[in-house]
Amino acid sequence: MTLMVGTTSKRRTVLMIHGWAQNAYVMQSRTKKLHKRISELGYDCMYLEAPHLLPMTSMVEVDGEMVEVTNGGRENAKAWFMYSEKDPSDASMALQETPMEYFGLDASISMIKDCLCKLETESCTIFGFSQGAAFVHILSILASTARMKPNCKHLSPFAKIDSAILVSGFASMHQGCMTDNLQATDCEGSLITIRSLHIIGEGIRPSQNRMEKNLLLSMQNRNYTSTKKVISYRTTKQ
């Protein structure tokens, strides 16, 4: 599912990437004021929806017996990737600062690649929240790698991504294949060179704050701001 909110496809596009257990509709409904401001600056928002549907229930072991538990009760809850191959709804590994494999990541990257191929504009911005921001970190790696090549925009659609906005996001811990035979380990220690804006929450757990700052350190052309209770944002038109 894709929700296109704007006036014309010829305007610059911001790809909106929702968080864990959300969907395009939830993201659009929660960013109406932000979308209005972005539109006033001359941009369209394209709300993308992750390909993986999270089950509403899971089986967990309690006192030696398997018990069915609910997973928040939200219908049409989607994810860009899963942390567990056995239980798609298990997000307990999300805050682990150790390399791991993100299951289903290839399908999400392929979806974004197809979307970029269809964009009529030569460049775009990606905006990610929560798990969506971690996914934007991965997309930023692909964009930076693609833009280093001569005639990059003719070789890889990821080269269309020239800037990123990450809200409450953590550095990707994925270790494995991403796309086009590019391994996540091939990019370890390298700075991401596209422009980026980071919005980091205050008053959160130390592990979350540390992981947000680790993400910030991986981005070269970066700005950041912090917020306590509500999401604040800065937009620039260049």
What are the key terms here?
6 helices; about 240 residues; about 25% helix; alpha/beta; 13 strands; two-stranded antiparallel sheet; 7-stranded mixed sheet
Could you give a short account of the major beta sheet? 7 strands, mixed
Helix content: 25-40%
Instruction: Give the number of helices.
Output: 6
Adjacency order of strands in the biggest sheet: 1-3-2-8-9-12-13
Number of strands: 13
**Which structural class best describes the helix and strand composition?**
alpha/beta
Order of helices and strands: EEHHEEEEEHEHHEEEEHE
Overall 3D form: globular
In terms of per-residue confidence, which ranges show pLDDT below 50 for 5 or more consecutive residues?
Answer: 183-189, 204-211, 215-238
Radius of gyration: 18 Å
Beta content: 25-35%
* Mean pLDDT across every amino acid position: 76
Q: How far is the first residue's CA from the last residue's CA?
A: 30 Å
Question: How does this model look, in words?
Answer:
- With 238 residues, the chain is α/β, with parallel strands linked by helices.
- 26% of the residues lie in helices and 26% in strands.
- The chain has helices at residues 24-30, 32-40, 105-118, 131-147, 152-155, 206-217; strands spanning 2-5, 12-17, 43-48, 52-53, 57-62, 65-70, 78-79, 124-129, 161-167, 177-179, 182-183, 195-201, 222-227.
- A 7-stranded mixed β-sheet has the order 1-3-2-8-9-12-13, with helices on both faces. It has a two-stranded antiparallel sheet with strand order 4-7.
Task: Give a nutshell description of this structure.
The protein is globular, with a radius of gyration of 18 Å. By secondary structure, the protein is α/β, with parallel strands linked by helices. It has helices at residues 24-30, 32-40, 105-118, 131-147, 152-155, 206-217; strands at 2-5, 12-17, 43-48, 52-53, 57-62, 65-70, 78-79, 124-129, 161-167, 177-179, 182-183, 195-201, 222-227.
